[in-house]
């Protein structure tokens, strides 16, 4: 595991934990037995309820980045809707920051991921997680596009697997056929011990194979 060296002179705002209860939202999606199988560090990160509007930031570095030709085309096309996928390999070995903010309005979470690049401005990915829908969890990318997520407890990891993609227009929702969607998206949170974890992203398509993969290693917030 690569070491993470991040210098900062910015004084961090203390994390405000909601005093009324532990966050049970992810635990309820998994079920008590599957939740108990996860490492204690993962349960702590995803069982920490922030006050409304409060944020927590994790700093790290991108450790792996691969994409095939079809993945490159997908990533470039997706830039018109906010670049939800890494669109080149220049983020490899560059600093990364993930900020999670409790959403007052939807009782969900805002996620902002910033990936440095070897040249040019960093890539910034915005999404909103809402505890709703047929699977109990949805992620909105923007421009009316989102995906429903299945949550699973894997081998030392918490996994978020896309169930299907949808397009929402004027209050109506359209289920995108699997063949016309980006493919199967799997996001993993893997505990590495010593206050570190690995964030993994993998996208695979039934026709075009493994489109892209990205790994980043982060350290727990102070």
Task: List strands and helices in order, with pairings.
Blueprint: H1 25-30, H2 32-37, H3 40-46, E1 55-67, H4 69-77, E2 95-102, E3 109-115, E4 123-130, E5 138-142, E6 145-154, E7 157-169, E8 172-175, E9 184-193, E10 196-205, E11 209-219
Antiparallel strand pairs: 1-2, 1-11, 2-3, 3-4, 4-5, 5-6, 6-7, 7-8, 7-9, 9-10, 10-11
Describe what this molecule looks like in 3D.
- It is built from four helices and eleven strands.
- It is mostly beta strands and 222 residues long.
- The chain has a single domain, classed as Lipocalin, CATH 2.40.128.
- The protein starts with 24 loop residues before the first helix and ends with a strand.
Short précis:
Helices cover 13% and strands 45% of the residues.
**Could you tell me how far the N terminus lies from the C terminus, measured between alpha carbons in angstroms?**
20 Å
CATH class: Mainly Beta
Provide the succession of SSEs.
HHHEHEEEEEEEEEE
Mean pLDDT: 89
Arrangement of strands in the largest sheet: 1-2-3-4-5-6-7-9-10-11
- Residue runs with pLDDT of under 50 for 5 or more positions: 5-13
Shape: globular
CATH topology description: Lipocalin
Helix fraction, binned, reads 10-25%
User: How many β-strand runs?
Assistant: 11
> From the 3D coordinates, which CATH architecture would you assign?
Beta Barrel
Largest sheet: 10 strands, antiparallel, barrel
Number of domains: 1
Question: In terms of structural class, how would the helical and strand content be classed?
Answer: mainly beta
Report the total helices.
4
Radius of gyration: 17 Å
Query: What is the strand content?
Result: 35-45%
């Amino acid at each position: 595991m690569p070491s993470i060296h991040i210098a900062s002179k910015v004084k961090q705002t203390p994390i405000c934990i909601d005093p009324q209860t532990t966050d049970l939202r992810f635990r309820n999606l998994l079920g008590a037995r599957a939740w108990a199988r996860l490492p204690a560090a993962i349960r702590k990160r995803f069982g920490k309820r922030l006050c409304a509007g409060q944020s927590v930031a994790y700093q790290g570095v991108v450790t792996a980045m691969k994409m095939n030709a079809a993945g490159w085309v997908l990533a470039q096309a997706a830039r018109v809707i906010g670049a939800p996928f890494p669109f080149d390999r220049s983020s490899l070995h560059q600093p990364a920051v993930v900020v999670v903010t409790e959403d007052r309005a939807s009782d969900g979470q805002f996620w902002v991921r910033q990936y440095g690049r070897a040249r040019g401005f960093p890539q910034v990915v915005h999404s909103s997680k809402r505890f709703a829908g047929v699977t109990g969890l949805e992620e909105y990318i923007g421009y009316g596009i989102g995906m429903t997520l299945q949550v699973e407890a894997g081998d030392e990891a918490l996994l978020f697997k896309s169930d299907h993609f949808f397009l929402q227009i004027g209050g109506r929702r359209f289920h995108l056929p699997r063949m016309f969607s980006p493919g199967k998206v799997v996001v993993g949170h893997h505990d590495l011990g010593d206050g570190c974890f690995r964030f993994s992203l993998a996208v695979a398509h039934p026709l075009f194979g493994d489109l892209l993969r990205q790994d980043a290693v982060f350290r727990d917030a102070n």
